[in-house]
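Support request, priority: normal
Reporter: lab tech (M.K.)
Component: structure prediction queue

Hi team, I submitted a job for Lipoprotein from Caldovatus sediminis yesterday, and the status page still shows it as pending. I've pasted the exact input below so you can check whether something in the sequence is tripping the parser. The sequence length should be 250 residues. Please let me know if I need to resubmit or if it's stuck on your end.
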Amino acid sequence: MPGRRLLPATLAFAAPFLAAAPGAAQIRLDGAGLTLSATPTLATDYVFRGISQTRGRPAIQGTVELAHDGGLYLGAFASNVAFAGNDARQEVDVVGGYRFEALGIAWDVGGILYTYPGYNRQPGQERLEFFEAALRASRAFGPVKVLGAFHWSPEFSARSGNGFYLEGGLDVSLPFEFTASGRVAYQWIERNPRWGAPDYLWYSVGLSRPIPGGFTLSLNWYDTNLSRADCFGGQKLCAGRVVFGVSRPF
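Reply from support: The job had stalled in the queue. We restarted it manually and it finished. Here are the results:
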């Protein structure tokens, strides 16, 4: 379907906001108060907001972040993609923002620029790149962490106007180092015909665990309330799917 972006995380609440995972390998630049972290990931699919970005194919991904002790950070996320009807083959997102704590809540205020290097837009095709402002918050209650996020784009992908995104979720620490997670979210788009699908709800449930060698394994189920007929002209990208991933911080 030429011109329609089929949406840019394998890790439901992590990318492209790049907070380092607990226990992640990091390089400290003490004189400057900076920390550098990076995490490559292999996954059986790249799913963003419940929709496959690789048409069900494997993804090689990476995140890198430079964070200051004062709360400012700058990072990037990269992945292969495979959209029907155009030649976009990679996504590179640039993120930046400020993290702080207030009222017992961890806040993250920032922005994300989604780009597609090498994409050669042909006549009749739409622009894929777009920007979102984002607000995230989390608070732990014993073994349970409650998370929320709100994103806004003044010009969503495919020049589809305002895009609003609301997400909530839980992470629960379990015995034997397992973590269970759940997410539910809704995406609103001002000009749905330009984007290619109606406003929609998506959700995920998953389980992750660190293993020897510094690796982390994850298994997630993603689904949306979009029918195949509503999914970008009848594609299978919005159907329920299982995604397995393995990552290792460096």
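The CA atoms of residues 54 and 82 lie 4 Å apart. The mean pLDDT is 91. Let us know if anything else looks off. Ticket resolved.
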